[in-house]
Write a structure and sequence with these properties.
Elements lengths: L2 H10 L3 H14 L2 H14 L2 H15 L3 H13 L3 H8 L9 H14 L3 H15 L3 H13 L3 H13 L4 E2 L2 E2 H11 L3 H14 L3 H13 L3 H14 L6 H11 L3 H14 L4 H13 L3 H14 L4 H13 L3 H13 L5 H13 L3 H15 L3 H14 L2 H14 L4 H11 L1
Antiparallel strand pairs: 1-2
Helix pairs in contact: 1-2, 1-3, 3-4, 4-5, 5-6, 5-7, 7-8, 8-9, 9-10, 10-11, 11-12, 12-13, 13-14, 14-15, 15-16, 15-17, 16-17, 17-18, 18-19, 19-20, 19-21, 20-21, 21-22, 22-23, 23-24
Organism: Atopococcus tabaci
Protein name: Tetratricopeptide repeat protein
InterPro entries: TPR-like_helical_dom_sf (IPR011990), TPR_rpt (IPR019734)
């Protein structure tokens, strides 16, 4: 048995001290063939520190080898040493057999640094060199999928399936293709593909995505069946509970929706969607104080969530809790979360608190964004009437009547101005 083989045996036996010793001896005494065996074995086992030292040793002692340069480039990339990775990749000549693989690694590095167009060009150059090779078809499919370019990704996933490749590098091709089809709204083909992917591997994530696609396709009975299948196999799979709650909300079954939320919160106390749905359910049940508590918890988890904050603001406006409305909007501003609907609510809240200067400032600030909104302008016109700003009233009212000539409230407002 060679020293390289002794080292691998020591690693399998978890005797790293012996592995260290055999590694040093192997570099001194083993044949080149043994050392290449060791490099392959270390690569498979993921022992990159040993592999890096071995590859550098082989390059220094035995001279140029582009496969070793690829290995070192990959190790440096994984260690976030991209400049060192490129040093090795750029040494690989375009005539080398390793050049297409070097292009793939360059594409990974460029994509990791958000240089998407350059990454795509490297992949396409490799494709031009090697043609319809499964490695490149998979790389292009994954690249386009990651960029949300689903039609292009579908093309290359289909190419793999045409070659009867259902699994590639641990990736279920039917599953990927189903997600791509679902993402472009092709729900029926996606459902068939999810079912085929389950024949390749029965995985909860596939059941979950299949259930989501049924949900998006408005087949709620089938969605419920598959969401429940996920829940039964793994009750801690907390992502199912918001969907289950939404199904029961659609069916006006508030108690069952509440039960789904309670079950979800038992497993997951950091899911803002669960808390926000709980708030909406308790609101419909007429328990507004409990709804407030859940909105607060949701915003603690996701303070930048605009629609969630607006929902809570609307509730507080209904409760006439205008000071808390102002607090939520000021908090949002401190987080640089700005939305016209919040500024409109701010204007109304200051108006109710009789702070008319701040109300005016808020109305004037948001007017350019909401000047086409009928409901906003009704509020603004009423405020301007109380302020006695007749010229501005006439201008806004004339504009709104052109946009909404049949609105009875606007005509009534105009008549009252004339009285």
């Amino acid at each position: 048995m060679s020293l390289s083989e002794e080292m691998i045996e020591s690693i399998h036996a978890h005797d790293l001290e012996a592995a260290d010793a055999y590694f040093d001896l192997a570099l001194q005494e083993d044949s080149l063939e043994d050392l290449y065996y060791l490099a392959d074995a270390l690569y498979e086992l993921g022992f990159t520190n040993y592999l890096k030292d071995l590859a550098e040793y082989l390059l220094n002692v035995y001279g140029e080898n582009d496969e070793l340069k690829l290995v070192l480039a990959e190790i440096h990339f994984e260690n976030n040493e991209e400049d060192l990775a490129f040093d090795y990749l750029l040494e690989i000549d375009s005539e080398s057999e390793a050049y297409p693989q070097s292009l793939l690694l360059q594409a990974d590095i460029y994509q990791a640094n958000q240089l998407v167009e350059v990454a795509e060009n490297k992949l396409l150059e490799a494709f031009d060199l090697l043609g319809a090779h499964p490695v490149l078809e998979f790389a292009l499919a994954e690249f386009y999928f990651s960029q949300g370019r689903f039609l292009e990704s579908i093309h290359y996933y289909d190419k793999l399936l045409e070659k009867d490749i259902e699994l590639f590098s641990g990736t279920n091709i039917y599953f990927r293709l189903a997600m791509a089809q679902s993402s472009i709204g092709e729900f029926e083909p996606a459902i068939s593909l999810y079912q085929m992917s389950l024949e390749v591997e029965d995985h909860l994530d596939i059941h979950f995505q299949l259930a989501i696609t049924y949900f998006q396709n408005e087949d709620l009975e089938s969605a419920l069946k598959h969401f429940n299948k996920v829940k039964e196999k793994d009750p801690s799979y907390s992502s199912v509970y918001p969907y289950l709650a939404n199904i029961y909300l659609t069916w006006k079954d508030l108690e069952e929706a509440k039960e789904m939320i309670d079950q979800g919160l038992h497993y997951d106390q950091v899911n803002a969607e669960l808390f926000s749905l709980a708030a909406l359910i308790y609101l419909q049940l007429g328990e507004s104080d409990q709804a407030n508590d859940y909105f607060e918890r949701a915003l603690e988890l996701e303070p930048l969530h605009v629609s969630l904050r607006i929902q809570y603001i609307d509730l507080l406006m209904d409760q006439q809790n205008f000071d808390q409305v102002i607090h939520l909007i000021e908090e949002a501003a401190s987080l640089q979360v700005i939305d016209p609907l919040m500024t409109w609510a701010e204007a109304r809240a200051y108006e109710e608190l009789e702070d008319y200067d701040k109300a005016r400032e808020a109305y004037e600030e948001v007017y350019p964004a909401l000047k086409e909104s009928l409901e906003f302008n009704k509020d603004y016109l009423n405020f301007l009437r109380d302020e006695g700003q007749w010229d501005l009233i006439q201008s806004i009212l004339s504009h709104m009547l052109k946009m909404y000539p049949d609105d009875s409230d606007l005509h009534l407002f105009k008549e009252r101005l004339s009285d």
